[in-house]
Amino acid sequence: MNAENLILEGPGIDTLVRDLNAILTDPGHPAHAAVRVRRADRLFSGIDRHLREGGALPVEWRVDADVSGSEDATAAYDMVSEELRSRGDVIASWRVLGEAAYWWDALTSMLTTGGPLPEPWDGRRGGSAPSPGSA
Asked: Is residue 51 classed as helix, strand or coil in its secondary structure?
């Protein structure tokens, strides 16, 4: 099953995060980098849409809604988003995967250790914040 079908069929947030982690952790052969960037972008878009709509957080994330200082998480989110929307040849795409992996790791490290959500996913700004296990 490809990433487009995963998003269209509405997989759980944990599946989207796991699949994005897999692509960014092991981007495969450089010749396939452009395809992998597009897949990673679709997965990140699915995660983004889910969390912006107030969906449940991934079970591994230990977000603390009372922690201030979402600037670092927001900066990492912005960098992942920007990198994955970049397009180019094999060399550029390989670089994009590396940069996106760096920033995704930074973001998920914050979110698995009790950091705040990045602003686009912080439901407190437009309603109630998503919580683990809620959907």
From this structure: helix
pTM above 0.85, yes or no: no
Q: Please name the amino acid found at residue 5.
A: N
Q: How far apart are CA 30 and CA 28, in angstroms?
A: 6
On whether the CB atoms of residues 113 and 62 are closer than 8 A, the answer is yes
Q: Which residue has the tokens 């495969």?
A: 28
Question: Per residue of the chain (135 residues), what is the pLDDT tens digit?
Answer: 444 434 434 569 999 999 999 999 998 999 999 999 999 999 999 999 999 999 999 999 998 877 777 899 999 999 999 999 998 999 999 999 999 999 999 999 999 999 999 999 987 444 444 444 444
**Chain position carrying tokens 């490290």:** 109
